[in-house]
Structure to design on (862 residues):
């Protein structure tokens, strides 16, 4: 019975698209994942391994024997092998390398040489090249001799004898033009090229802005070395957006079924850091112990001042980080931005402080406490706005990721200074 | 001199790609933006208007006279006019509609009928259709009679006399196959179709997973009504990721140069909501006024308990929201997820509570205070984990956006319950 059940499952799994199999594997706990992986047909192995997220791939490769791994890997393109190589056992790598042509081996070494988040790290080597002096008819006949065009071929590349890129010929132009025309007459010479050392996020911005499907990658001497396609770019956009969301919460990518130990390693540093900043803020507040012991209600109001300052600063910071990410903040408009944020915050803060003051009056029965509350809240919101604008801008100027570190600094500032302003004003005016 | 300067600027602006002009306009304060817009050559008007973000478009249209607006709009495709129509004055809309063919007018009405975030809202109507009984040679000759293929044409659609979709013919297959073959023999019948009422985010997931460049949209009766391309999908992915980042901070899209009034309207509701939750938490804490007035140091420690609980819960919530967004949480694995999060949090919390307890002991000089601190911190982190898992899951089950509302509820729970647990334990064990 178990056997029959397994056969049904096997048929079901293998009727799916490799991308769907990858998705299912990612959604399963480790044991179930490896059980299903055993059922996947061998000819899907390569595609599934390339589709799954990094943190799942390792657990799949662990269960494969050497022969299966070599079989899955040896028909991959050089750039695909490069993406996988960190997860492969050394003897499999050696075996696979033996099977490559000298050209493929050179491509593999080249692909491995680029950082993961560079254009070189996402480019592939499969593309159609033609000369500029032939007719479109010749190009059409040449294409007809291929089995298939590389995925996402929306244009073919026109190169000279030394592989220098001379132009691009879109399939659209190829199809609508007179076959007797030469490539040179029809090709476009106004196109975007990428450098293999460009950041992949920059390439993604270019693809988004100019609605590209593929773009050529050239070296310093103008020679065509690779191609980036929209499929890779979409992955870059999605990964960057995921990373940003996670880094705001102080984490990295984590398998929701990864071993508990990994979860702890991923989360503990951030919480420890927050413990330090919260401890510092508590220490600042504790310097006002006398004041608080005289007017205990201050203890309950001070966390409101700190919290609203943090929330307000977080709004400003979110806007600024986004504007920085798309390159919309310049040194010319920076001052104007700061001014605008301070004005918006001052006005929102003034309105909010009326509500907060009313609450403080209700809970304390004291008008002076309410007035201190109002002043401290506006003051701390302005602190939040300043930090929210300045810190991401300075970090981005220094070439650092503006998102993650900024939020720690923001909370630190609005907590510590919030307590300091509120309890300081209370000490001056109420004691 | 002013004049000459202006001419140079005009030449510079008009040498740019419309997408770059749109980007520059978005990065400028309103007055500069409208000044530059005046310099843009009339034939770029349509492309730039379509490229700029919604909040910029209105300010550009305001400065155009009626004739220019009609000129810019009348050559747009029906789906493009539909995207713009909310920003156009009614008399311009009437004028433009008069210039449309009956077919275009029907398309315009159709496009306007779909919600903005549906497949119907992003689809276009420009595509190549062929019959299945002709040879590829006939298709090639037909294409050669076109001026150009619609942007992002990677496949053409095979339909019958009633426009029912029978298959897709990729340009790649068209180019590599024998021209004497018929379309029917070469076309693919295994393809993904979209329904115009599908959510655009779902279409985006399909494009990502299957690496598509375009996909056909069909109605209930299987008739081809439109096409979605990767260019629109990339915009959807980017907008969704932007919206998510903003909604976490309680905001909507905001022009960093929008009038201050808009900034206030965008931010005040969220801050007011946070003021209410912080006020409630303060009220809960104030019920323990006697305890705090006996042991004042509790006032400084209680915000640490609340803050770490919130941070820890936020990590859990970020992971769960992401897993929900890609459809990786099912009712089968939900319980396992909750268990895992509780275990990870318990272990991280136990480790962190040693540091927090040490700090409490140092600042208070009292071992019992330190022990209460440790217990409260672990307890509140577990509260954060529970809320971080459960609230997004329940919200998503109820069909609500899991991101925004969840974070308010999380802060509310970890603040109020954090104070309650800490001061409650202190009242029981220390007084």
């Amino acid at each position: 019975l178990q056997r029959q059940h397994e056969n049904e499952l096997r048929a079901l799994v293998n009727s799916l698209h490799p991308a769907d199999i990858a998705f299912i594997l990612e959604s399963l706990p480790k044991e179930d994942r490896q059980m299903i992986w055993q059922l996947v047909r061998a000819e899907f192995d390569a595609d599934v391994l390339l589709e799954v997220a990094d943190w799942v791939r390792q657990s799949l490769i662990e269960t494969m024997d050497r022969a299966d791994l070599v079989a899955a890997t040896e028909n991959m393109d050089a750039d695909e092998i490069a993406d996988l190589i960190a997860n492969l056992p050394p003897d499999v790598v050696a075996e696979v390398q033996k099977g490559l042509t000298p050209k493929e081996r050179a491509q593999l070494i080249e692909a491995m040489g680029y950082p993961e988040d560079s254009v070189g790290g996402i480019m592939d080597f499969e593309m159609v090249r033609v000369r500029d002096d032939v007719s479109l008819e010749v190009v059409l006949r040449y294409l007809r001799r291929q089995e298939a065009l590389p995925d996402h071929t929306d244009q073919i590349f026109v190169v000279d004898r030394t592989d220098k890129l001379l132009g691009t010929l879109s399939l659209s132009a190829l199809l609508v033009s007179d076959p007797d025309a030469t490539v040179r007459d029809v090709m476009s010479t106004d196109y975007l090229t990428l450098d293999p050392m460009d950041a992949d996020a920059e390439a993604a911005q270019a693809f988004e802005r100019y609605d590209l499907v593929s773009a050529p990658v050239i070296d310093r001497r103008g020679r065509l070395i690779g191609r980036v396609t929209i499929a890779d770019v979409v992955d870059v956009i999605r990964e960057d957006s995921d990373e940003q969301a996670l880094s705001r919460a102080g984490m990295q990518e984590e398998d929701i079924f990864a071993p508990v130990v990994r979860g702890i390693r991923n989360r503990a540093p951030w919480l420890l850091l927050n413990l330090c900043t919260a401890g510092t803020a508590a220490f600042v507040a504790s310097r006002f112990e006398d004041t608080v012991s005289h007017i205990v209600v201050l203890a309950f109001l001070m966390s409101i001042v700190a919290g609203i300052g943090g929330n307000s600063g977080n709004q400003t910071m979110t806007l600024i980080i986004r504007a920085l990410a798309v390159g919309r903040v310049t040194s010319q408009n920076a001052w104007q931005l700061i001014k605008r944020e301070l004005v918006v915050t001052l006005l929102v803060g003034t309105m909010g402080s009326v509500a907060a003051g009313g609450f403080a009056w209700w809970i304390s029965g004291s008008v002076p406490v309410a007035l201190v509350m109002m002043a401290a809240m506006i003051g701390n919101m302005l602190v939040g706005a300043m930090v929210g604008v300045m810190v991401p801008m300075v970090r981005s100027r220094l070439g650092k990721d503006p998102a993650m570190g900024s939020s720690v600094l923001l909370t630190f500032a609005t907590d510590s200074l919030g307590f300091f302003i509120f309890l300081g004003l209370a000490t001056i005016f109420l004691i």
